[in-house]
Specification:
The chain is α+β, with helices and mostly antiparallel strands. It has a single domain, classed as 3-Layer(aba) Sandwich (Glutaredoxin), CATH 3.40.30.10. The protein is 40% helix and 20% strand. The longest helix is centred in the middle third of the chain and has 14 residues. 18% of the residues are buried.
């Protein structure tokens, strides 16, 4: 099954890099916003999206199929949500 995956990350975050690598290593297509690299209205829009899924605004925040939200690098939950 193909999942819609969006990753909210920080460019300097080791756990965010680990999450990206996990998704890439498992052939999962995903979109990503490195929130700390955004500016102006784009940063405001994306920050509001993150808050909707994760009020604490911690990273990484992974949203799968607009339903499952995984905060932090949690390999077990990622595998389960993606059927790996």
């Amino acid at each position: 099954m193909v999942h819609k995956i969006h990753l909210y990350a920080l460019s300097t975050c080791g756990w965010c890099r680990k999450t990206k690598k996990f998704l890439e290593d498992h052939g999962q297509a995903f979109s990503c916003d490195d929130v700390d690299l955004l500016t102006g209205p784009d940063k405001e829009r994306v920050t509001n999206e993150v808050v909707r899924f994760n009020p604490r605004r911690s990273y990484p925040t992974v949203v799968i199929d607009d339903k499952v939200v995984i905060v932090g690098f949690d390999e077990e939950r990622l595998r389960e949500a993606l059927g790996l």
